[in-house]
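Handout, section 4.2: multi-component inputs.
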Amino acid sequence: MKMRNSKLLTRKDLLATFWRSFTAEWAWNYERQMNLGYAYSMVPALQKIYHHQKDQLIKAYQRHLEFFNVTPWLVTFPLGISIAMEEQNALNDDFDVATINDIKVALMGPLSGIGDSFFWGTLRVIATGIGTSLALQGNILGPLLFLLIFNVPAILARYYGLWIGYNIGSSFVEKIQKTGLMDKLSYGASVLGLAVVGAMVATMVTVKMPFKIGSGSDATSLQGIFDGIVPKILPLLFTLFIYWLDKKGWKAQWILLLIAGIGIAGAGLGILG
Amino acid sequence: MGSLIFTSIILALIAMLGNGEYFLGSSMLSRPLVMCTLTGLALGNVRQGIIIGASLELAFVGSFSIGASIPPEIISGSVLGTAFAIGQHNSTAVALTLGIPIASLVLIVKNLCFIFILPYFVHKADAYAAQGDGKKMGRMNLLGGFLAVNLPIGLVVGLSYLFGSSAVKALLAVIPAFIIKGLQVATGLLPAFGFAMLMKIMINKNNATFFILGFAIAVYMKVPVTGVAILGACLALILTGYSSFHGKKVVTQTSNDDNAAAKEDIDYEDEEF
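Output:
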């Protein structure tokens, strides 16, 4: 990808940011979340931009140690924008420094909204679906494909995000918010993600009820009755039950314990098998 | 004894590689599918490791860090659960039974590190920034992640295996058969937990239909997950207007609107990343 003409930075400087951005979550902390990784990624560009202005450099370091968090694979996009804006700041005396962090903060929510639903909800679900279905048969392609399917798009997004962020700078943000593209992207990602989750509920949650009603040749299993209504309705209802418990505010550990309890009680009583 | 120590060290390194995901572009190395496979490889039973990985992956499919939430510590759960299960010539159910409580326990350890060790590095970075020392500030990112999170996880995993495997063996010998059977049933139920967590993040009244659609396609048409993903992607493109017909209309009376629509499309393509 081509780089916008720059007086201060070279392609190599931006590539340093690209590589450093891989560590964005390495020192993730409760207090300021991704701040150390973000500042670390900004260092090479900032050193070049404020080469002879130590007071400006210190302020820039401190700026980028502020609180920040975003879907990690998209971090290069705000990084690119920040670099473009820092560069503007160094070249223009009347640049409003506060806007640099304003833009970062404005990006956090919407960008994470798209990013989390796409990377966690869609891409990872697809990678997991394909990976586990192979791995359940003991096939080594399972974990390998899982990593490839996830990481190839993730690294491409990381790479191009940097150049797009740098080239278009802050005007980009205003533009996509006006055109409603942000909403469209997250809606489309959720459609795809949920369809896959629905299919995974049908194929990967197992609830079997071998318990029989009646006697002799008239006996029908509970499983048969439920499957007669809608096949796989038991996994669906069970998933919705867990969803409901979570909505009621149940803690994850308790839900996990309850599931283990249902399994043991069900097997002990012969209802589940 | 010598080989036990050796294995403990290898498992500690595997766990550290898993946590190294956050140094290597949040690349999913910490997922059970990867961790269990590597553990299986280290213990000489790759196939069993992959199969256990698939089951644990499904159980933990909803455990991931979005925003400020920290999921159960899946790395230690995966590595130790798999190691004990393979050491015991035992089933996936054993790995799950051990993996889930281990993951919750180690999360406590991890949180202690987050609360007591990592903040030191965050504040040290502030001090270096104030001196304008970008190199040392960046080093706090690298050291903080390593000393406060990565190394403790490696130590916990290595030491647990060193001291725990014989204790775990004794524990497993006294577990009654119906509990093991019940946990196998629970293994089938657990993916529901993950899917419920995913739904919580993604579902709203505008897209809930697509969850049902994905389920119905999988159940009635027997389409595998990958197929549903492809259908879902097409549907997302259609619904967000990417695949709609935007060619020239024969009737030219509202040419202004057409131009506006066409312009918007060009913008989308530029902004795709």
